[in-house]
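Budget justification note: compute hours in this period were largely spent on complex prediction jobs such as the one shown. Inputs:
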Amino acid sequence: MAPNPIRPSAVLQGPVFETKIEQVGDHEMLLNLGPQHPSTHGVLRVVLKLDGEVITEAVPDMGYLHRGVEKLAEHRTYPMNIVLSDRNDYLSAMNNNWAFCLAVEKLLKVEIPLRAEYLRVIVGELNRVASHMVFYGTFGIDIGAFTPFLHAFGRDREEILDLFEEMCGARITYNYIRVGGVMLDAPEGWTHRVLQFVERMKPRLVEYDKLLTKNPIFIDRTIGVGLLSAEQAVDLGVTGPILRASGVSLDLRRDHPYGAYNDFQFDVPLGKQGDCYDRFLVRRLEITESLKIVEQACRKFPDGPVMGKVLKMYRPPAGEVYAQVDGPRGWLGSYIVSDGTEKPYRHHIRPPSFINLQALSEIVKGWKMADVVAILGSLDFVLGEVDR
Amino acid sequence: MYTIDVIEKLIQRFPEVSKIPVPEKFVRDPEPQANVPPQKLLEVCRFLKSDAAFSFDFPTHMTAVDHLKDGLFELVYALYSTQHRVGLILKSHVSRTSPEIDSVSSVWKGMDWQEREVFDLFGIRFNGHPNLKRIMLWEGYPGHPLRKDYVHVTDKYDSGLEIGTPGLDEQGLPVKGDGHGA
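Corresponding output:
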């Protein structure tokens, strides 16, 4: 193997332990959390400055999963980029596909058939439910409750993945939403099986609430912990359930509807004070709302084609475009600059997790070491998207 | 969606700002775009956030585009007003030879890491940024990958070859497959 010119120096000159925190007082200590720590939900490293057990400063360090997706995008055609988008936020790949396709469709001026719009809403919302189930389970583990994980992750999320598998053959990285529509029509009886799943979920959500939402130990560990005010959240550009938990009523699906969201009735759950419990509760209630949307979409599922008129090889006209969806983690956007060729000149992804993670060092100050794990979990980030 | 013509109002206050016409081809909700000279950017941003008629309190995202042919970096700032529910895109151009611009992270905290990312991947300096360090790549990484003239330095993950060409095995013979393994 050829000698490696970069890595050895990287190890030596790489992120030094005291990169940012230079001043450590007599009664203070530095603690390194991660990158290989189960509660960081991926390869995130946080350098914590502690006074006794109280956090006085926290500096997140990321980039361990940086794959240069934006650079890779410049060397791939538009259809190939949909495959890349799956890998950003691998817990809600459908919404990633969707954001990218929305942007390209805006450039190409394609009309999307109604059936495809409905299918997008169904899979997007099911994927949101699946993503929130991962959050529900892992947040429980962070706090010390293992059983909810087995219910949400082990049983219920699997059923959603089975539905996706039946639909497009993949369970995690779907590449299902395509420019102009969706890859394949739903198999026969699929919407019926989705409705059956929604029915099965209704009593299970009551179970979810018994296990965590109303669990006194869980409430003690999360209520009032890690407060993020509405002003702070807006200033930081935080989006999604974290923003809504701070009491800011802003949901793209309702306020600037894309796809077929105008056709459905749903509520936007809001938190009161922006603590860990509110962030948990908003996501838990969003599962209910998403299932409501899925149910409505399946009940008035229209007939027709699932793909608009798009050439196999398309070259969007030169120009630039930005489109975004409200994914499970917030505003997920694609900014594309086209130079009229079959490859994007520049593709920037607005990663909700990356921008939300900025809130961490703001809200973690003054809390105890054990609360850090709860706060980290409540932000529900995906490192694949943070680092890209 | 856009009830107030933000750009016209902004030009009244800052004559240096110019409107970028949004092409006809966009189907849905084209956001108004304005070109801001880099020297004025910080002032314009402060005004946009604090003035009640605008109150662009929410930083949606910021990024850069490398226009190698024109010798320019284009900085793109997407803003949003949670009060008026409108969006706005600001653009500023800096030269590729000495890419520098004022940091707006003092206006919106949410721009902090995004400016670091642009600094890391484009090498554009943000004056007045509190902690301008690489964020994705490590200190000492050669170059700024998202620049169009960036030359990829091969490392062990390429098998010493460019992406797309077959890798070589220990005897120096081409490996069957996509060349990404080895």
